[in-house]
């Protein structure tokens, strides 16, 4: 809409992975497959932890939060990208873009905080087992979860408010498959991005704090684990902790690179790949790494299948 010389942007155009119709459909199918895997994995973990009383412990309480965050994070970006590819439309409304940016940062920020709390939980369990029930009581766990969600909400509000306080009057094409701060800064017609940079550095401060906390927790965990006399005990602890650490490192490094690397004017496949690594890969891998490899979770799945099977048999006996 033109009002004199001022242009008011009422929507944006998201970047597709290809301009070819067949490749767009292929991308939609690929994203749909990833989305279904993430959806089923996270819903399964969330449901099992909710239903199984044996899993009502601090560790699984935080895992349930993580599954819900993963479910939300991937649902904010991927379904929209699939719909755009199938409809050959790239548009997103201005309000839709604001909401998408806010939610991505809210869920990603909360996820980093929850992963930090989970590492602290493991540290107390392995290094201070006698004090575990006292420190990780129900009230403390709820407070930690609320603080994690709150930190994500604060950063999300800052990022979206500062980014959309800038004027957009030129190109409406966002060089990304969802609304992201670096991509929006590239198309803003303001040269002064100081407010946004302040928000980014506050967010970065949160990430650095989480990284240091996780390094300290895992440092103590590994030094305690190395003192375990049996090789089996050591390998069990390492097989639990190392995958957690790898996913966190990939999540943080790709997210930080996407925000801190210099902005190029040309479209970059690297931008799309980096953003995929921190918005799509963790929600898909987390259920496998944190939950479904876990012995208690496997037992819970077996119990759930057995219960379902026995209830079906009862139904058949009741209504022959």
Automatic annotation (TrEMBL):
Keywords: Cell membrane, G-protein coupled receptor, Membrane, Olfaction, Receptor, Sensory transduction, Transducer, Transmembrane, Transmembrane helix. It holds the Pfam family 7tm_4. It comes from the Eukaryota. The keyword Transmembrane helix applies. PROSITE patterns: G_PROTEIN_RECEP_F1_1, G_PROTEIN_RECEP_F1_2. It is a multi-pass membrane protein. The chain crosses the membrane at residues 25-49, 98-120, 141-161, 194-216, 237-260, 272-292. GO terms for cellular component: plasma membrane. It is found in: Cell membrane. Residues 41-290 form the G-protein coupled receptors family 1 profile domain. GO terms for molecular function: G protein-coupled receptor activity; odorant binding; olfactory receptor activity. InterPro entries: GPCR_Rhodpsn, GPCR_Rhodpsn_7TM, Olfact_rcpt, Olfactory_GPCR. Odorant receptor. Belongs to the G-protein coupled receptor 1 family. This is Olfactory receptor. It comes from Monodelphis domestica.
């Amino acid at each position: 809409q033109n009002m004199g010389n001022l242009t008011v942007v009422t929507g944006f155009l998201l970047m597709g992975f290809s301009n070819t119709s067949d490749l767009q459909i292929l991308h939609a199918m690929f994203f749909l497959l990833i989305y279904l895997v993430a959806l089923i994995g996270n819903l399964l973990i969330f449901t099992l932890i909710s239903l199984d009383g044996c899993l009502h412990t601090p560790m699984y309480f935080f895992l349930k939060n993580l599954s819900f965050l993963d479910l939300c994070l991937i649902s904010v970006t991927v379904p929209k990208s699939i719909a755009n590819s199938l409809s050959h439309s790239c548009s997103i409304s201005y309000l839709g873009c604001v909401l998408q940016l806010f939610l991505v940062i809210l869920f990603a920020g909360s996820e980093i905080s929850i992963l930090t709390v989970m590492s602290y939980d493991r540290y107390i369990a392995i290094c201070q087992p006698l004090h575990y029930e006292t420190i990780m009581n129900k009230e403390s766990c709820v407070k930690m979860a609320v603080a994690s969600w709150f930190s994500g909400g604060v950063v999300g509000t800052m990022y979206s408010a500062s980014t959309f306080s800038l004027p957009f009057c030129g190109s409406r094409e966002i060089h990304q498959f969802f609304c992201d701060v670096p991509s929006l800064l590239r198309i803003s017609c303001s040269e002064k991005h100081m407010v946004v940079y302040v928000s980014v550095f506050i967010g970065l401060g949160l990430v650095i704090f989480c990284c240091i906390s996780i390094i300290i927790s895992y440092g103590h965990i590994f030094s305690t684990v190395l003192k375990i006399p049996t090789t089996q005990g050591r390998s069990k602890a390492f097989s639990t902790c190392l995958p957690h650490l790898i996913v966190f490192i990939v999540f943080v490094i790709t997210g930080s690179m996407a925000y801190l690397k210099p902005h190029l004017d040309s479209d970059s496949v690297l931008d799309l790949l980096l953003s995929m690594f921190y918005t799509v890969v963790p929600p898909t891998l987390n259920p496998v790494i944190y939950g479904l490899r876990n012995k208690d979770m496997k037992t819970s799945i077996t119990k759930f299948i057995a219960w379902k099977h026995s209830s079906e048999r009862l139904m058949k006996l009741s209504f022959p």
